[in-house]
């Protein structure tokens, strides 16, 4: 099994990906120092959106929008934000999110 690769984004070789490319960087078109793409100052990280490194080497810590702590995302959060000023999208009452709404209608909308 030879496996299937899309062409390498660095050198366009169809036999490997940019993650395993051992050819010099062609992203910056200057490359007078012979650096690799993963070390290129013009490469953009998909995780933090900063220049100069790839996401595999990113040191950015995720920040949770629920509790404000670093190291996990909102989906992974075990803590709850203070909900006293939260307005429920389902019933418009204060104090809870729609996913926790005690007035759920079962998701059925009836119109005349």
Spans where pLDDT lies below 50 across 5 or more residues: none
Can you give the mean pLDDT?
73
Please identify the structural class as seen in this structure.
little secondary structure
Strand proportion: under 5%
Largest sheet: none
The tally of strands reads: 0
Please work out how many helical segments DSSP would assign.
Answer: 0
Shape: elongated
Protein name: Gag-Pol polyprotein
GO molecular function, one term: zinc ion binding
Pfam families: zf-CCHC
InterPro entries: Znf_CCHC, Znf_CCHC_sf
What does this structure look like?
The protein has 112 residues and is low in regular secondary structure. The protein contains no helices and no strands. The chain is elongated, with a radius of gyration of 24 Å. The N and C termini lie far apart (60 Å). The mean pLDDT is 73. InterPro entries: Znf_CCHC (IPR001878), Znf_CCHC_sf (IPR036875). This is Gag-Pol polyprotein. GO terms for molecular function: nucleic acid binding; zinc ion binding.
